[in-house]
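Quick question, first post here. What does this chain look like in 3D?
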Amino acid sequence: MSTPLVDGDAAVRLAATAGTGRRAEVFAESWVLSRVVAEQDGLRLGQRRREGMGLSLVTERGVHHRHLPWLASERLPLLLNDAARGADVYGPPGADWDGPDVATDTDIATSATLARMVGVAAAEAGAAYPGVTVARVTGEFTERSTLVAREDGVLRHGAHAHVELRVHVTARRGGATARVMRVAGAEVRDPGTLATSVGDEVIRAAARAAADAAVRDLDAVDPPAGELPVVLAAGGPGALLHEVCGHGLEADVALQPGAAYGGVLGELLAPSGLTLVDSPRAPAGAGLYRFDDEGEPAASVALLEGGVLRSYLHDRRTAAAAGTRPHGHGRRLSYAYPALPRMSCTYVVPGALAPEEIIAATPFGLYVESIVSGETDMSSGRFSVRVTSGRLIENGRLTAPIREATLSGTGLGVLRDIDLIGDDLRFMPYGYQCNKLGQFPVTVSVGQPTLRVAAMGVSGP
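> Answer (accepted):
Ran it through. Tokens below.
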């Protein structure tokens, strides 16, 4: 992906002709996803490619975007002319979306490396217990090169690659069945280091954790129902705050009339020990990008600091509307879409309590280990999320595993009711695919220490 995508100087000159008071961005992209899937009937190899270019024009009438599913510097003026006429055309770019399915030496080498990683995970999980079936292990290597050229002369070239393994395990005993997934991933600074980017010990640990959880969950009981304390385990359950708070803090949502987090900057929304951050460069060794899809440097943003709402997540357009500076959170699914304010890696700064202390301080409640999906009304902040793995807390101890459960409430209520914060910050890099206004899937990471929410609605699935 080292070949220039389009003529950067020509793209900058074109963007500069957008007109006084207008912002223009040329965005060119080349993206390759290599995938190996191991299932019971063998290995499947695949690759998806896309490349193209788009131009977003921000005027007093709104955002106008035009794109083409190929790279051609000489066609850039066509994009600007169409965007200037208000021709909004974005979405999946049709027949050229997948691009040619061409295997090269590099593709073969990448597939071989992914197949080895997948094999390590499958062997570890499959040998863990009698009755455990490795339903599927997926290894994905994503490479993305971008170019951003703007009306103010900014020209950015970006490149990012990461690898992700997802281990799906099924355990059966009698009539009981339990299914569990675990994820491991890392940033790949140089494609030549893919083979060592995720160590075998990390892969085996993820596979073993999936097998352990699946066997344990064979003895699952129904979750309790009602308002009760919920302890969120370190790591992946950070998806709750992503879902129920993070979207509401994206500036295009927060600045709308009647928004749940509108007009409360500077107010105390959570206990003084809570600091919520979004950083595209976190965690170390598994960042998402160095420049966003508008060419802004990736910056760490304290959304809440000491419980006080300090900032929203901005792209260039919302920052201009709010009279502040953008901070590198303009993201887009592909060249076919305009940028939007989006989360990257959202996490809670650790506190001072050991996780065992938080559990011991909870006479009865729910311990959440995995959250896989949810729905949030971005204006009101009301949510429901699905818990796929967890345990009961009884007399300050973890006891029986639970079947799937649903958590519900409001984002503001969750923030208000966080009362205990652990010291065991963990991340789940590249663990979730986020949807917003049809731009799906955009990869995000989450992280948190063990947290307790004093009261949250709990029900069956």
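DSSP finds ten helices and 21 strands in the chain.
The CA atoms of residues 135 and 351 lie 38 Å apart.
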